[in-house]
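Please discuss these two lines.
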Amino acid sequence: LESDRAQRGGVERARGVYGEVEKVWARAVNDAARRMRSQITKAVAKVWGLKQKKIRGRVWVSKANRRKLFVQVLGGKWGWPVYEEGAAVQTAVGVKIGRGRKAQTYPHAFIASMPSGHTGVFVRKGRRRLPVQEVRTDSVTSVIRGLGIEREILTDGMETLAKRVDAQMERAIKRRASK
């Protein structure tokens, strides 16, 4: 989101709030970014069946300020180790993660503890004993793309931004009037 100085100057003169427009836009952009993060977190939590708190840690939001009136909402490139999903059981076929209908089997996988003390689900990269690779879930970004809701999230973010700019402007006007 970018706006030129002439637009902002016109808004300042119209509303009588000098020097506050950058703050208003920064707050509104940050509010919209938090809303987008929340939507991403809810959608991914529903697909994976994990708690939102765990997923929220993998969705990063940069903050806007007076000089930088834009944000980035980024999902991680990597997923979680499947062992962290809980209830990992070694079977004759591989490893079964989860319980009930949501249980997923990873064939040819095994549970092991590394010399560092890290326990996880691993598969061999080739026919030999080593190297092994840890089995991970899909990343947040790939889940969002797979669901096809990127455009919905962006559209809702822009609608939220429009509403929040008005609300933040009213807040600035009231604050200015009370001084």
Notes: The beta strands are 59-61, 73-75, 88-90, 94-97, 104-107, 110-113, 119-124, 132-134. The longest helix spans residues 150-178. The mean pLDDT is 86. The CA atoms of residues 37 and 112 lie 34 Å apart.
